[in-house]
Amino acid sequence: xxxxxxxxxxxxxxxxxxxxxxxxxxxxxxxxxxxxxxxxxxxxxxxxxxxxxxxxxxxxxxxxxxxxxxxxxxxxxxxxxxxxxxxxxxxxxxxxxxxxxxxxxxxxxxxxxxxxxxxxxxxxxxxxxxxxxxxxxxxxxxxxxxxxxxxxxxxxxxxxxxxxxxxxxxxxxxxxxxxxxxxxxxxxxxxxxxxxxxxxxxxxxxxxxxxxxxxxxxxxxxxxxxxxxxxxxxxxxxxxxxxxx
Length: 245
Hints:
Order of helices and strands: EEEEEEEEEEEHEEHEEEE
Pfam family, one: Laminin_G_2
Helix content: under 10%
Domain Laminin G: 1-164
Distance between the termini: 47 Å
Radius of gyration: 24 Å
Strand content: 35-45%
Protein name: CNTP2 protein
Strand order of the largest sheet: 9-8-7-2-12-13
CATH class of the largest domain: Mainly Beta
Number of strands: 17
Shape: elongated
CATH architecture of the largest domain: Sandwich
């Protein structure tokens, strides 16, 4: 396929921070790859480079964050020549590709959910997507529907299920006055706590616990949008540790 215009759209949700969403490449050196990296969306695109090195077409754009939250996110890529609109959850970013070429020349298959092993270092280091996709549309073709009806020829479909498995987690909602109190373990030398949270509020107490035998306490809170950990120990000279991120 040699295209001047492309429109690619899909929705996804995942709890993984890395994974190739779709990929296509051609013998002329053109390629397009959309992937998650560190829970951000990265679009790599090359409409062509020349062997002399005077035309370098590689273009990389990053958008979004925390996309591994297992919520649905929508992506639309609209390309007309070198002009690209990349829309993630209604937030549009406009850019122009590097180089001098306008056509995307893909003469191999396009893969969704991963990329075929090509022997190149780039394909070996990339993870396949793990999660759910829906409403995959490539230049007017409803890929999801075609895959479900087995109308994609040729195609290689491995371990696809046309349903979305929900994670076995139970969220808890707290308002400004509610809290959850659980018994501590007084015989333990180790204090360990882990949790996921989402909030629009810049301030709030997340965790508080007194240590046994009046040895101090630990407090985790949000202060002006930063998570802070405060550890107070009563029996040592440097009796307070503060960490924020």
